[in-house]
Amino acid sequence: MKKTFTILDGSGFVFRAYYGMPPLEDEQGRPVQAIYGFFRMLFTLLKQNPEYFAIARDSPKQTIRKEQFAEYKANRTKMPDEFGYQMWSIKQLVKECAIPYFEAPGYEADDIIGTLVQPNPLISGAQWDLVYKIVSSDKDLKQLLSDTVVVYDGMKDEETNVERFILEHDYEPLLIVDFLALVGDAADNIKWVPWIGAKWAAKLIKEYGGLDEIYAHLDEITGATYKKLKEWKKNAYDSKQLIQLMEVPDLVWYDLEHANISLDFTHVHKVLVNEWKFSRLEKSIKELKNEISGGKQLGLFG
């Protein structure tokens, strides 16, 4: 049986925790709802007991995409100071609890995930016995779907494999990049081809394929669709470049031990419950320990 390598879109998880939790402060009056929410969701996820696990994080520095396209994500409001503080705290706590994570200057979590699921000659042969489970609600990551890659959306409690994607969209997962290049992505301020909506973009892709194939057959397309595609060709290709995942060249790891998670529950309890006073996490920590111990009712520190 194949083993599972679960890769969490950590940046998306932090945003979800921050905006999905009611305000919460610690004894010093510091905001902590994102920290508490992040670990509560993380422990629930880890109950699935993946053989290998890692968190992928966005670069804290300006990304390559932002350097190439100044308008990328320019529509987003400045991160509140209290959010930035909690994001930094989560990173430190993840390190302190010895939870595997990957981060690379200039790259986003999506790029790291895309690099991790690709065959890598530097990794031991055990890689070929893995199923990758990407935990994210980011539709861009569905371009990675394959026989060995699935995407799990925790918000919907929904898992998508390559067969389900094709059944729903009637085209191959990799072509979602071309679809999004045509319709844009308002969340990331990625431009679109005006007038070409989701329904028409899907029709073009089903009939011709990706952008290259569509533009190779442009003379077969008539009316306003032809005009808009011709006029906004640069938009489409610029958007595709933004959506396509980049390979992270410095993401070097030589064996799966780098993604081997083995929690020291005594230490995790000490850090999160005793020091950070997240008493409501005590139950989650205990349940997680019991779950990954094969259902044996061990004491919290046994």
What does this structure look like?
It contains 13 helices and 6 strands. The chain is of the alpha/beta class and 302 residues long. The protein has 2 domains: 3-167 and 246-292, 3-Layer(aba) Sandwich (Rossmann fold), CATH 3.40.50; 170-243, 5' to 3' exonuclease, C-terminal subdomain (DNA polymerase, domain 1), CATH 1.10.150.20. A hairpin with a 4-residue loop joins strand 5 and strand 6. The relative contact order is 0.15.
Quick overview:
The protein is of the alpha/beta class and 302 residues long.
What radius of gyration results from the CA coordinates?
21 Å
Q: Please provide the ordered H/E string of secondary-structure elements.
A: EHHEHHEHEEEHHHHHHHH
Per DSSP, what share of the residues sits in E-state strands of 2 or more residues?
5-15%
Please provide the count of β strands: 6
Kindly report the name of the CATH homologous superfamily of the largest domain: 5'-nuclease
Name the overall outline. globular
What is the rounded distance between the termini? 30 Å
Q: Taking strands numbered 1, 2, ... along the chain, how are they ordered across the largest sheet? A: 3-2-1-4-5-6
Oligomer designation:
single chain
Give the class from helix and strand content and strand pairing.
Answer: alpha/beta
CATH level-two architecture of the largest domain: 3-Layer(aba) Sandwich
Helix content: 40-55%
Largest sheet: 6 strands, mixed
Attribute tags:
single chain; 302 residues; alpha/beta; Rossmann fold; DNA polymerase, domain 1; 2 domains; six-stranded mixed sheet; 13 helices; 6 strands; 9% strand; disordered C terminus
